[in-house]
Each structure stands twice: as C-alpha cells, then as structure tokens.
Amino acid sequence: MLTIEDQNISFAICADIDNPLHPENAAKNDTDIYIASIFFSPNGIPNAYSHLQNYAEKHKMNVLMSNFSGESWGSPSAGQSAFWNNKGELVAQMNDSYSGLLLVEKKGNDWESQIIKF
Predict the structure, then answer these.
(1) What does 57-107 look like in DSSP terms, one character per residue?
(2) pTM score > 0.90 for this model?
(3) Whose CA is closest to 29, among 2, 56, 67, 4?
(4) What is the largest CA-CA distance in the chain?
C-alpha cells in the first residue's frame, strides 16, 4: 500500500482480481483507490469489468483498471482501461481500438476524467 495526499492506494495484477480475497484484504486496510494493472483478452474483459465494478461497490473503494492495448506475444488484449467510483459507478472508460492514458482527478467528492489518445 502507498499513501499519497491522504489516499491509501493498493495495487493488483491480473490474477489478483480473480481472487475476491485480494480486494477484500485491501478494503480491510482502508484502501481508497484499488489499482489493477492487467492483461486481459477480449474474451476475458467482461469478467474483469464485472469483478472490478462489484469490488468498487461492495468495498466502497475507487477502482482504476489499466489493461494493455494491442498485441503481446501473438495474443490480443482488450484495452478498455476504466475507472469506477466507490459506489461502483463507471466514471470513465477507454475503448478497445486505441492506446492512450485514462486520467482521473478527484474534485471534491466527484471524479473528473480525461482520455489522451496516442
């Protein structure tokens, strides 16, 4: 866990988000933002979205998912990086056809987003 400006941030990789104990433990440690860096294929991304949205809502923590875009070792990735607020609401989402950055910034109790395409 890392703390920046009074925000506790926990990190996850691909396998972690398939194990409900990982985000549960993050929540027990008062995580404000759960960041998952993953490589999910187009077939796997619906389950990733479902899990992460559920974790955000259930554990009352913001969730940022960064998924690789493009191809690696002959396997396609799904892209579609996304951010859910601590109510489980999808705040921002990239698509599956371009690379870029998904930026989110907390403004009071809300979040603002911006997508920078490469």
Answers:
(1) HHHT-EEEEEE--SEETTEE-----EEE-TTS-EEEE--SS--EEEEEEEE
(2) yes
(3) 2
(4) 43
Contact between residue 67 and residue 77 where contact means Cβ atoms under 8 Å apart:
yes
Alpha-carbon span 15 to 36, nearest angstrom: 10
Read off the pLDDT of residues 67-107 as tens digits, 9 standing for 90 and up: 998 888 888 899 999 999 999 999 999 998 888 999 999 99
Q: The tokens of 80 are what? A: 């579609």
- Phi and psi at residue 110, to the nearest 5°: -110, 170
CA-to-CA distance for 92 and 89, rounded, in angstroms? 9
Q: What is the DSSP string of 36-65?
A: EEE---TTTHHHHHHHHHHHHHHHT-EEEE
- Give dist(CA 81, CA 66) in Å, integer: 5
